[in-house]
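Reviewers of the previous submission asked for a worked example of the structure-prediction workflow described in the proposal, so we include one complete record here. The input consisted solely of the amino acid sequence. No template or homolog information was supplied to the procedure at any stage.
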Amino acid sequence: MKQEDALKTLIGLLRDPDHGNFGSYGYDIYLPYLLLNQLRNRGVSDPDSNTTLREWMPHFYAAAWELCRRGVLRPGVNAYQAQSTAGGNAGDGYSITPFGRQWIVESERDDFVPTEPERFAAMMEPYFDRFGVGFFERSQEAIRCYGAHTYLACCTMCGAASESILLAAAIAKTKDEEKILREYSGSQGRSKVERILIGQAKEWMKREYRGYTSLLKYWRDTSAHGRKSGIGDNEAYTSLALLLRFAAFVYDNWNGLTQ
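From that input alone, the workflow returned the following structure tokens.
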């Protein structure tokens, strides 16, 4: 059990919190009883359940606090003068916010995409040294935006992270950071830097590069402007997947792109 596993489990339980015969006092979620009921439903004996619960609870406390940070949960009872407990007030009891109820309805994909910062960071970690601090910052912002269901911002950050990859590769190829940054800051800067990087590359490499970046660039540009975008969960989800694939592509073909 890790925090991201606990968070994924807790998101699923929020859709239909079942405390069984234990009850939840005046809270929407009473973590120990919610988990004990799940273990009982799996046929785990009470002594073993309590042992497991002691191992699990630190991770579920952290997961619940992450959902509080996102605005999905809040500590405390769900109504004025509802029954409270010392344990609930100490971190066992939570209530779902109005925003949280809408978030839960929208969160089905959160179960399947690696959209927790810790797990996503682990998948991106091999690329951080090569692509630099700008890539690290923007890729992590992208996943946090997805977790908060701010899909426009997620697409913007995915596009920005892909441009950090472009800059890192172009600088490695030319060994002239000042020139690349100057070109990038000018009119049609992204296109100019792309020509520097892949203008003389093999055709298959150009095709793959454009396949990964075309939607990232389009959604990045669309979401960064003031027009109605129509960008939602599908586009943000796909942007994260494309960013992962694009990072892997450039990393795996680094010598072919930069030499």
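The first strand starts at residue 29 and ends at 30. We consider this example representative of the routine output the project will generate in years two and three.
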